[in-house]
């Protein structure tokens, strides 16, 4: 029991440090994000090499920002701040600002015209994590005909189904079984907080996560969220 208590205290201390450090890293990373953007705009005709490097810096900086956001979200249990969210339009808007898909094609199949009560910031964090996993799965497997990610929405009864599908390498059963385990990662530089966070955020919204994945055929992750009460059961938007 003594031992268990010491372990819990240590974990709590680590959580505290993680929260503080990731919070402190937020501002300097924000500076980097905007400096790189200013630099990119001020170079009028950068050669292909310079442009490639700038894009790489930008993607890398964004990756760091996401890791920090994930650590922060994971180490602090915050209350959701819920508001009605018209999902399809919101998704289009968020995706327009999204960076770092590289050469992956993005297909949208938005047909829900749904409104959910959600914390947009958290929900986006979940979707951004799914997108990142999809892109990484594609980059690791180079599918024939090119990598493609499809984001789709549809309504099933009183539920919004928002799915992110990729044609990357898919998952072995052993990976699938540990998918939601914190710190589980098969990547050289993976943190292993993405899927646990996705699950936590979706469950905080009263929803659930379903995963379909076959080695060699890609992966589909479906977030199932309850429709806003006003809309549930009417079938229209
Ligand atoms: P990380 O991305 O840091 O490794 P995640 O929690 O996001 O952590 O994912 C855990 C593991 O699940 C990944 O390392 C990978 O093995 C597997 N995984 C997640 N999403 C996909 C996907 N779309 N395709 C294939 N494997 C995936
Ligand atoms: Mg991930």
Automatic annotation (TrEMBL):
<feature type="domain" description="Histidine kinase">
    <location>
        <begin position="20"/>
        <end position="229"/>
    </location>
</feature>
<protein>
    <recommendedName>
        <fullName>histidine kinase</fullName>
    </recommendedName>
</protein>
């Amino acid at each position: 029991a003594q031992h268990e208590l010491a372990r819990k205290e240590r974990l709590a201390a680590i959580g505290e440090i993680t929260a503080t450090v990731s919070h402190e890293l937020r501002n300097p990373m924000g500076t980097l994000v905007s400096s790189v953007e200013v630099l990119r705009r001020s170079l009028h005709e950068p050669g292909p090499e310079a442009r490639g490097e700038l894009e790489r810096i930008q993607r890398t900086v964004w990756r760091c920002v996401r890791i920090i956001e994930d650590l922060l979200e994971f180490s602090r249990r915050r209350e959701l701040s819920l508001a009605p969210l018209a999902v399809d339009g919101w998704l289009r808007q968020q995706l327009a600002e999204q960076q770092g898909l590289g050469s992956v094609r993005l297909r949208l199949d938005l047909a829900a015209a749904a409104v959910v009560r959600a914390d947009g910031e958290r929900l986006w964090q979940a979707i951004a994590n799914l997108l990142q996993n999809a892109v990484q799965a594609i980059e690791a497997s180079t599918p024939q005909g090119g990598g493609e990610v499809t984001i789709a929405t549809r309504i099933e009864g009183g539920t919004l189904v928002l799915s992110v599908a990729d044609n990357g390498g898919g998952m072995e059963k052993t990976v699938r079984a540990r998918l939601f385990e914190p710190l589980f990662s098969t990547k050289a530089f993976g943190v292993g907080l993405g899927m646990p966070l996705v699950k936590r955020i979706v469950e905080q919204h009263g929803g659930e996560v379903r995963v379909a994945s076959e080695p060699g055929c890609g992966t589909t992750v479906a977030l199932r969220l309850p429709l806003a009460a006003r809309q549930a059961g009417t079938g229209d938007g």
